[in-house]
């Protein structure tokens, strides 16, 4: 018997979840730009409940945002990232139910994650 990896509706995250709010706050603290969340819960193919996307002016700022997210989520939510991938232009931090994408501005336009997931409920956080 194969168990479903999808969560039931009762234990899925929302934008009012502590983890979600902590991540948004951690990005804002380090001056992430154009913060957007995509609610993916109604999309069957989605790998997470939310994508949180922002852009930055430098790799230093990108690293500072990811580090701040890790610090704050560990301290305030007792959560640890499942995976973190960092490059000079696009980095992500995966909390299973929330995946955070931090882009250099031109890379965000190039990859257009918001366009790829345009069926998701989109909310701006700036």
Brief descriptors of the model:
single chain, 126 residues, alpha+beta, Beta Polymerase, domain 2, 4 helices, 6 strands, disordered N terminus
Average pLDDT, to the nearest integer? 90
- What Rg, in angstroms, do the CA atoms define? 14 Å
Helix/sheet category = alpha+beta
Percentage of residues in helical conformation: 25-40%
What is the CATH topology classification name?
A: Beta Polymerase, domain 2
Would you kindly provide a written description of the structure presented here, covering whatever features stand out?
It is a single chain. This protein is of the alpha+beta class and 126 residues long. The protein has a single domain, classed as Beta Polymerase, domain 2. It is built from four helices and six strands, in the order H-E-E-H-E-E-E-H-H-E. The chain has helices spanning 18-29, 59-77, 105-111, 113-116, and strands at residues 33-39, 50-56, 83-85, 90-94, 98-104, 121-124. A six-stranded mixed beta sheet has the order 3-4-5-2-1-6. Strand 3 (83-85) and strand 4 form a beta hairpin.
Summarize the topology.
Blueprint: H1 18-29, E1 33-39, E2 50-56, H2 59-77, E3 83-85, E4 90-94, E5 98-104, H3 105-111, H4 113-116, E6 121-124
Parallel strand pairs: 2-5
Antiparallel strand pairs: 1-2, 1-6, 3-4, 4-5
Helix pairs in contact: 1-2
Short overview:
The protein has helices at residues 18-29, 59-77, 105-111, 113-116, and strands at 33-39, 50-56, 83-85, 90-94, 98-104, 121-124. By secondary structure, it is of the alpha+beta class. Strands 3-4-5-2-1-6 form a six-stranded mixed β-sheet.
